[in-house]
Structure formats: C-alpha cells, structure tokens
Amino acid sequence: xxxxxxxxxxxxxxxxxxxxxxxxxxxxxxxxxxxxxxxxxxxxxxxxxxxxxxxxxxxxxxxxxxxxxxxxxxxxxxxxxxxxxxxxxxxxxxxxxxxxxx
Length: 102
Prior knowledge:
- The chain is mainly α.
- The protein has two domains: 13-57; 66-95.
- Helices cover 53% and strands 0% of the residues.
- It has five helices and no strands.
- The protein has helices at residues 18-24, 35-40, 44-57, 66-79, 83-95.
C-alpha cells in the first residue's frame, strides 16, 4: 500500500517560514514535524480545517470510543489504499487496544 514518493511533496525544513511556524504553533516547536503537517501547511486554509476536524475526531469529545474510531479509520484507509493513514493508525489503534488479528 505504500508509494515510493509523496504525491504532493511536503515542505522541507528550509522552506518553513515564520508564517508556517506560527500556524504550526507550539505543538511542533520542540519535536519532529510529521510530513502530513508539512504537506497540509502548503494550503493554510486546508491545514486549519484539518486541524480542527482531526482534533475533534481524535479527541474525547467524539462520541465514538477510541477503539471503534480506529477500526473505522483503518477500514477506510485499507479500502482507499491510503498507506500513510494505514501506517499511522495501526500504531494509534494498537495504543487503543486493537490487536494484529483485528
């Protein structure tokens, strides 16, 4: 399911300007900025919307329990052959109690 290179290249460290860093905020000041965020930041409105939506989906405010949420995300990622989503959410799903068999 993995592709050799991204369809849309994420911004390199040298391409991240002050405006980008301000949008990324404090959460990325001291750690690695994942490629999903380096890619979305190229489209600031998309980045802001994704962060709002993703923050809700992955929060405790979502009505779905975390385990069931991850099952849905993994099934969707599998069906759409979305390697990045699959790789990220296998790890998150295991943290939520999913097993390899599931």
